[in-house]
Every structure is written in structure tokens, then in C-alpha cells.
Amino acid sequence: MCVHVIGAGLAGLAAACQLTELGHDVVVFEAAPHAGGRARSYFDKHLGCRIDNGNHLLMSGNISALSYLHRVGARRSLIGPAEPIFPFRSIKTGEAWTLRINQGAFPWWVFSKARRVPGTQLHHYRSLLKFKRARPDDTVTGLIGSSGALYHKLLQPIAISALNTMPEEASAVALQSVISETMERGGYATLPRWARIGLSEAFIDPAIDWLRAHGADVRFGERVTQLQPGQATVVAAVDRRRADPRAHRAD
Q1: Are strands 41-44 and 49-52 parallel, antiparallel or unpaired?
Q2: pLDDT value at residue 38
Q3: Which of 6, 42, 5 has the alpha carbon at shortest distance from 20?
Q4: Domain 1-54+197-251: what homologous superfamily?
Q5: pLDDT per residue over 22-67, tens digit each?
Q6: Ramachandran region of residue 7, left (φ > 0), alpha (ψ -120 to 50) or beta?
Q7: Contacts of 147 (CB under 8 A, 6+ apart)
Q8: Dihedrals φ, ψ of 33, to 5°?
Q9: 226 phi and psi, to 5 degrees?
Q10: What is the pTM of this model?
Q11: Beta partners for 44?
Q12: Over the stretch 39-51, which tens digit does the pLDDT of each residue have?
């Protein structure tokens, strides 16, 4: 069966890779002249250097992301420390602190004033249980509030870096997924990882190369404009005009 994947962002590439590995003929359509979506590297003319688009924090507990990298042969494209230690610094106040999560699953780090978020006490961490009851339309701020050291010094930075979204808009359900697969499982699942060179070199370019090497067809500058009703895998019309790069600039 031939499967058409619309969009060559990280989710589209991951789906295309898995479908290809399962033996399907895959065609990937991307309207922009490049792949990656919100997880790519590009040259910023104003800064005069190459940067990664957006904030992206990956931790060792994200098995899906690591499996994706392993599939496309890019597992070694990530680097990071051997201990779950997170140094923070506030740009507004200049305050610096370090979060030190213990390796095991039991979170005894919240009992240690030297390890937990400064300005927090043990009972503050009970509020994290609210995320387990989060509804699909709950935002992080709407569920937990926007006051207190735990919010400003931990939840807000995690929401921005892991979800690439401000907590006022970030999904509480999505953040709970991050928390459950990392901090709830202990420090061994909370080791921070980042791209050795850049997001494109780690997540995007290897996937494109892998797909083409395995027979998939990846097409850029082709916008899908219509699907046959009831047949989501069939592309009926494709705009083959080159996409306007200005319409796909980085946020």
C-alpha cells in the first residue's frame, strides 16, 4: 500500500520512517522548501549565524524520540551530562540555582533543600498531582496558577523548553506526559540531551537521507490542496509551484 504523508515536520518524518520500515511505499509532501517545521536549524540573517528554531529540551526518558534517532542512525548526534543536574539562571533577577534530581525512582530530592527548587517546600510539590487530572482543554497556567517559586523556577521553564510553548497556552496534558516519562521515573530518565551540532543535523537530515535510501519519495515545495473524501491516504491534487520561503520563515 502507498501512504502519503502530508508535512515533513518531525511528526511527519517519524511517521514516514515507521511506515517505510513496515514495508509501505511512502510519499512525503512538504509545502516548504525544507523539512523540520519547528525543529530545524537555519541561518538567521539578522544575527549573522546559524541557530536552532525554537526551544527544544529532550530528556533520556523520551523513548519515542530516542527510538526515532536510533532508526535513522543518529543516536550519537545527541550529547549531555551523565547526572540529572539542571543549572538555572534568571535573566530578570540574575539569581542562579541548580536542580539536582536523584537517580532512583523515589523522589527523595524534593526532601532536600539543597536539591529542590529554592524557595519551595515539600508540600508545594503536591500541586504536581493536579496534572494527573488535567483535561484536554487545560493549560499549564490555568491548571496550576502562575504564582510561586515552583511555577516560575521549574514548571514555566520546562513548559517553554520541552513543549516550545508558553505555559499560558501550553497543554497541561502534554506537560503531564513529559513529567510522567521523566521526573516521575527518576533521574535516570531525566538526563538532559541536546543536539551536538544542530536540530537539523540530529533530527531532520538523517531522516531524509534514511527515507530516500529506503525508497521513500520526499518532495519539497509541493502543497497538498485536496484529498479524496473518505480516502485520507490518497492525494488527489498537489500544487507543484515552489512554496514562498517567506511564508515559512522561522517564528
Answers
A1: antiparallel
A2: 84
A3: 5
A4: FAD/NAD(P)-binding domain (3.50.50.60)
A5: 999 999 999 999 999 988 998 889 989 888 886 678 999 999 999 9
A6: left
A7: none
A8: -80, 10
A9: -160, 145
A10: 0.81
A11: 49
A12: 899 888 998 988 8
Burial class (CB in 10 A: 0-12, 13-18, 19+), 18: middle
Domain boundaries along the sequence of the chain: 1-54+197-251, 81-190
CB count in 10 Å sphere of residue 68: 20
Distance CA 111, CA 119 (A): 13
Q: 62 in the Ramachandran plot: left (φ > 0), alpha (ψ -120 to 50) or beta?
A: beta
> Would you say 78 and 87 are in contact if contact means Cβ atoms under 8 Å apart?
no
Contact 126, 110 (CB under 8 A): no
Q: At what angle are helices 10-21 and 205-213 packed, to 10 degrees?
A: 30
Residue 231 pLDDT? 54
Q: Are 251 and 21 in contact (CB under 8 A)?
A: no
| Long-range contacts from 227-236, C-beta under 8 angstroms, 24+ separation | 233/1, 233/2, 233/3, 233/4, 234/4, 235/4, 235/6, 235/27, 235/29
Q: Average pLDDT of 150-164?
A: 91
